[in-house]
Structures are given as structure tokens and as C-alpha cells.
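Internal tracking record. Fields below are filled automatically when a chain is submitted to the structure queue. Please do not edit lines marked as system-generated. If the sequence contains nonstandard residues, flag them in the REMARKS field before resubmitting.
Queue: standard
Priority: normal
Entity type: single polypeptide chain
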Amino acid sequence: MQVQNSMTQDPQAGYLRSRLDFLRTDFSGYAGAFIAVAVGVHVAAACFNGGFLNADEHYQIIEFAQYKLGRQSLSALPWEFTAQIRPALQPWLVVVLIRLCRVFGVTTPFTIAFLLRLLSALLALWTSFEVCVRCIRTVEVRWIRVVALCVAFLLWITPTEQARFSSENWGGALLVGGLCLMLDAVDRWPTRRMNAVALGVCAGVVWGAAFYCRFQIGFAIVGAGLWMLVVRRVPFELIAAIAAAFVVGCGLNVVADRWFYGGWMLTPYNYFVENLVHGKAAAFGVSPWWMLAAYMAVLLIPPYSIGLLAILTIGCWYGRRHVLVWMTVPFVVVHAAVGHKEPRFLIPLLYLIGPLLAVCVDALPKRVSGAVNTWLRTAWGRTHTAAWCTINALLLGIAISVPTNDTYRLDRWLWDQSRTGRITVYAVGGSPYEASDTTTNSFYRSEDVSVIPVQSADQIHAFPGAAPAFAYYRGVDAPALVVAAGPCEPVVRTIPAWLAWLEPTLLAVDFRQATICRFSGH
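SYSTEM-GENERATED OUTPUT FOLLOWS
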């Protein structure tokens, strides 16, 4: 099965016109509405999903950048920095953005973080659309194309995950960006040889960046390379150009790592040795191979996900000559084989799931796809389709509007309070800026917030001052020493007090329930 380049059908058409025509073909007069909704939910996710979804997203990217900017100490960084296992590409991008923001007088960390999320969302929208253009245009059935586009952009978790400045998200975005360039290069060979080589070189460099965002992306890149060699039988010259450019791209990242860490090293090698040879990854927990299927089932909304996963599995077999299958299968198999698994490892697949679903349904035997189509037209089928869409819409609305990090509301509140003057926070059982005993959050911390660890009420009374005094503690109910220190009215919590009954569930997902109260006597 060949993947047809969208531009070959009308080489005279402008870029924007060809893309709009692509959408009009599927959505008729509703193309504009689809664009508005897709862009709107991604921008909304960038606006409202404050904080960080996973600790690695913040402490191994933004805090690394803070260290290079002289705002974070080496001792307060996670162990990954000393082990030199994290690539410097994304931290350098954060450094550049922060310095640019300084030029324009923007110093608020929440604005800078929003810009990182917005940049991520816009990159995701562009690359997701481009891969859909190239991979589903050849699907003849209109409803399949429409479903693929809706899943690609409006699956409940997609806007939230694609508005993250995380290694998984940027690795996935650059992966499909390189895929689009590769497909264009293959399509133009040999009639436009020089143009094909130039596109292939760009694909290799972009794939090098994708690999240095998330090393596991390499398995999907290898799958694309094997597809070129085995299925499309791309001439050696073009494959060599892509491979050489990939090596050059990786070399540029080696130089970036040298500037960042202060010495020559191969971070992919260090990553492999620390996590697999020395077993660091397994120390964070191991799961059976089928746990990856469980993650996918939740992602696609059970119980309907059972049918969707069956269609994807069977469709991958019948559509086994498609490049998306060659990229997805090795990526999934390797992650299933590795002991340590997390749902975020699947984020790169969000860029492939929509077009891959279209490819799989289109590749099914006619009697099977016909039966699916017939069932969807029945009252029972329409009811279940409406139910899935309703559940997805509800989850989407929640996902794009709720901060992704448990302490974000506290960080924002402390920052806003410190804008009017210096404040003192007496910390009981840990600081609001501590991720662990050694790792701290410097990015969202204001210099006008003084955090003082205390172990008794007398210590609180020992630090009187003109600045407003607050107490930070874990949980909903104030600990005894805070009560003994005097009246302290709760002013902000990670979640409302009336949701305290969810605390056992929150603990299971490592959600931090914390409170800040204000002493009335200060």
C-alpha cells in the first residue's frame, strides 16, 4: 500500500487552499466549524491546563533550564542530571524562550509556561493535520476519513496531552513531522530528485530531534526506515540521505549536550545503561506486558475500546504494508516488552491513532467493514456511537479545563500574594516547593515567599513579623501544631474540602492534598 502525497493531486494549488479543500471534501460546509473546534480545544488546554502533568516534564526540562540560567542549584536537581541521561534539546529551548521573554519584559513563570504549552499545542495541530492529509486521503469511504480526523484532534485526552512541553509530546510531534517530510521525499523521487533529497535531509534532521526528545521514538523511526527498504523499495541514495541527515541531527544534539553538561557524552547510551542495565527504570515499578493494552483500553473509553482495539489489531494485519503500521507495531511491542510502563509512554501514539484507525478500517475485508458500516446505521449502532461521543465530549471538557498538576493552584496563589509584598509560609511536613527531600521547584517560586520549616507551635511564634504569615500542611484538617499556634483560616487548597472523601483515591494516583491557611494574628 502506498501513501499518496496530498500535493500531487493539484501541484498548482497553494498550501492553504489545498488543506482547506481537503477538509471541505470530508466536512462539506462544516470545515470551518471543525477547524474552530479543533484549534479551540487545543488552545483552551494550553490556557487552563496549568502546572505539569508528570514530574519529568517539569523537573527534567524546566528545572534543568533554571540551572543553566543560574536560578537552581545542582543539589536540588533530580538524579538524572548527574547521570547525564536526559538530552539538552528541550531545556535549551526553555532557556532561549525565557531569555526572549526577558527582552520583552515578561518574567512571570505562569506566562512563560503558558507560552511553552501554546507552542506545543500549535506544533501538535500542524503535524497532526499534515500526517492526516498524507495518510487518509486515499481512504475512499468518507465516514472513515471523518472519524479519523475527529479522533486525531478531538479524542478526550489528545488536546491536553498535546499542549504539554514534554519529551513524549514533542517526540511524537517531531516523529510525524519527519514522517511527512519522508513521505514527500519518497513521492517526489525520481522525477524531482534534488527536491526529494532535500526533503529527505530535512526528514532525517527532524527525526534526529524527535529521537533526542524521546529516545524510544527511535523504534518508530526504525520501523519507517524498514518500510522504505522493504515495502516501498526506496532507492539507496534517498535512504542514505535520510540516514546521514539523521546522524548529523543526532550529532548536533551531542554538541548541545556538551554545552549543557560541560563534557562529551552520549545521553542515549547513558540512558540505556542507567535504566536497563542498572535497572533504574524497574525501581519505579514493573508491569506485565498486557498493561499497555489496559492503558489503551482506558484511553479509548471502555467498554467501546474493546471493539476499537480489536479493529486496530486486525486492521494492522490486513494493512500491514502501510507505513503507520510499520511505525506503530515496533513502538508498541518494545514498550510492552520493557518492564516499567506508564500511560504517558503512549502519548506519541496520539499522533498516529486517528489516521491509523482509518487505515485499519479501510484495510479490513469488505464483508467485515461492510458489516461494521451496516451496524453503525442501525438504531442500536447509532445509540452506542452517540454514547461514545457524549462520554468523549464530557471527558474532553473536563480534561481541557482542569489544571493538570495538584499543586498548581497553590503555586499560583503564593505567587499572586507575593506580588503585593513579602509573605512568610510556615511549612509543616514539607515545603510547597519540594518534590522530594532533595528536588525543589524553583521555576514557580517567588523570591518574596519565605518558607520556614517548623515542627512545633513555638517555632511559629518565634518568627513574628510584619509580613503576612501562612501555614502549609498536607491534607484538609490542620495538624495539632498549627491549631496550637492560633486561629488559621484556610485560604487555598489543592482541591476543595468537600472532595476530601476522595482522599484514598487521590493517594492511589499520587495526588497531593494540601492546604494553605492564614494566621489571623499576623
